[in-house]
Amino acid sequence: MTLSVAKIVIVDTCLLLVSFFCAGYIKFNRFDLPPAYMRLFYIFAGCWLISSLVAKKFQVITYRFFWSGSRSLIFSMIYLGYCLAFVLVMMGTAFYSRGFILSVCATFLFLELLVWAGVHGRVRQFISSSAKDDPEDQGTLSWHPGNFAYWAVIVDGGFLYAAFMAMNYIKREHFKFLAGYDKLLLIMVGVWFLVSITTRKFFLKEHRNFYFSLWQWLKANGLMAAVLAVLIFGFNLLRYSRAQAFGTILILMALETMLLVLYFIFTRGARRRGKDIETIEQVRQALHQEPIEAKIDFEAVRQRLMSSVRQRIRRRVSPGFPGVPEFLERHLDLDDIKNIETSFMNNGAVLHPDPDTHPVRLMLYLKKLNDTRRLNQFFLEIHQFLAPGGFFVGYGHTLMTHREWIFGKFPRQIALWVYMVDFAVHRIMPKLPGVKRVYFTLTRGRNRVISMAEFLGRLSFCGFEIVAAENIGKRVWIIARKVKTPSLNQNPTYGPLVALQRSGVGGSVITTYKFRTMHPYSEYLQKYLYDQKGLQQGGKIENDFRMTAWGKCMRKCWLDELPMLYNWLRGELQIVGVRPLSMHYLSLYPPELQALRKQVRPGLIPPFYADLPETFEEICESERRYIQSFINHPVKTQMRYFCKAFVNIVFKGARSG
User: Fold this and answer.
1) What is the spatial distance between Cα 480 and Cα 374, in angstroms, rounded to a whole number?
2) CA nearest to 339, candidates 381, 300, 311, 298
3) Is the pLDDT of residue 310 over 80?
4) Alpha carbons 315 and 305: distance in angstroms, whole number
5) What is the CA radius of gyration of the chain?
6) CA torsion, points 625, 627, 629, 632, in degrees to nearest 10?
7) What does the pLDDT read at residue 132?
8) Which end of the chain is more exposed for a tag (fewer CB within 10 A), N or C?
């Protein structure tokens, strides 16, 4: 048996057609419906598609149990009714027969449930054979009475009554109901109960955290408002005040939010406090004092200090950071590192080493690096503290892991808005001139979002070599080794305009300017990425994670190189010439080509765009031919290479990688 979204859509469309035209035949005694009702069918079809997508009706994998499939169909029908009521009222076409619309919806739901009852066994067999059962999903789709908060039903029911009375007082300045409003209260109670059970809002122990629980309760209130809107439209209950009905739901949402806040504060506090000391005997045991023997086996202490740090890392790191000890064992020889040579840190205060103290070979920093206010200064202090060749281990949230953490903590509908606000505050504000001073004053640098390239680049800038970097538990763990002195560059690039040190004519070093297309401190990772990934076609770093999304667009449009016109005006560059290279990239060239490059000025348009070489060897050969030709015929070579590059760029779409 095979299932696809297309098959489900076709079957559901046929059921909608049957339901609509059967209801039309019962009303008009013919299948040839009036034009107005044919327009209603198109409205039905549009609302059906929207409601089906919202209710995820076409996702077969969620139809694991009969109730889960039935629930999706019921939700889809509720959404359909709400969408129809809204569209018809907004379009001024509420003259359609309510009985006809309700009969179509009822027939449609009946046929869907009938078909689902006949095929659910085969669908479940298909799902079981095509994918492994997820215990978490099963827990979500099945009922666990132990997780049901019975007290919440009573409290929430009381909140509903209180909200109704409060709204009644706001409108009329007294608590006495108008005639018939007791029926509206009964209708709301019935809808509240059905929606609450359907959305599982009272299964509080199943909710991951406060935000997921709040989302379930907000969603239940939204469905309650939708069902009430359908009932008001379908049964012509416009005599009731809509402010009374929907205002009650708003007040109920506010009361429920306060209830959830108190619930999670209480349960979290209870979990943290644990069992308290209550009896006199427990007090005596807690205060009982025993004499301490002064006899100490210093030989055992020495053996423990000189033993491998492996077991100590497992004791200290495994409980809070599972998977990290295994990560360290894969990249470090822990048997060779002793306990006495290892230091653990839980805050940003680094003690300046005493020359007479023993060297530290391994430093583990067990606090998030994003919370460190002056990161370069911290890394430099670590660098001073470590012995040459010593290792630093730390972790942080990068752009990607921080996004995964937010989408794991909040429901997706809320997470998107939280991520946008968080990105603006913790990513953009620290980089804006003037604004960043306010940001660091208010936050002290905590929780700012830093890219992977910036983390690794800052470490390299401070004299470390990157040994390994892996995502573990939605965090990036980094192992860095002290192998060199810190960079002498007093102004590493950080703003939108980048100043880069490049090789010039005669072996001189020139400062070229470009708009930023990479994350800050990326220039210090060139050797690391070359060793890890190598070069792709065109001589660029393969799979370069340093590149920003907007940087790729700027490079394709050549916008990033506009500031280099300033270097051309200063005479440091010419229009056509070899590419100005970093010292590391230049070191990859053959020695004779390095010497040959010193005889010519670099250029804005390199020979690459004329010859379009693919491999690094072909790039070297292309530059060698250009330089030899330029030395013999400078003007002719410039014109010939410029024309070939112009054709390749404009007509053949040659671009920078």
Assistant:
1) 18
2) 311
3) yes
4) 15
5) 35
6) -150
7) 44
8) N
Share above pLDDT 70 across residues of the chain, in percent, rounded to a whole number: 82
Provide the pLDDT confidence category of residue 142 given band limits of 50, 70 and 90.
very low
Rounding to the nearest 10 degrees, give the CA dihedral for residues 417, 418, 420, 424: 140
CA separation, residue 299 to residues 202, 279, 295, 305, 341 (Å): 60, 42, 12, 10, 18
Model confidence at 61, in pLDDT bands (50, 70, 90)?
low
| Alpha carbon 226 to chain centroid, angstroms | 31
Q: pLDDT digit string (tens) for 568-615?
A: 888 889 988 888 888 878 888 899 998 999 888 998 888 888 888 878
Q: Which of 153, 156, 39 is nearest to 92 (CA)?
A: 39
3-state SS class at 388: strand
DSSP 5-73: HHHHHHHHHHHHHHHHHHHHHHHHSSSS--HHHHHHHHHHHHHHHHHHHHTTTT-GGG--SHHHHHHHH
Among 213, 253, 268, which residue's Cα sits nearest to residue 410? 213
Q: What is the pTM of this model?
A: 0.58
How far apart (Å, rounded) are the C-alpha atoms in residues 140 and 5? Answer: 23
Strand 497-503 relative to strand 509-515, pairing: antiparallel
> Judging by beta carbons within 10 Å of its beta carbon (0-12, 13-18, 19+), is residue 119 exposed, middle or buried?
middle
Token representation of residue 69: 């499939």
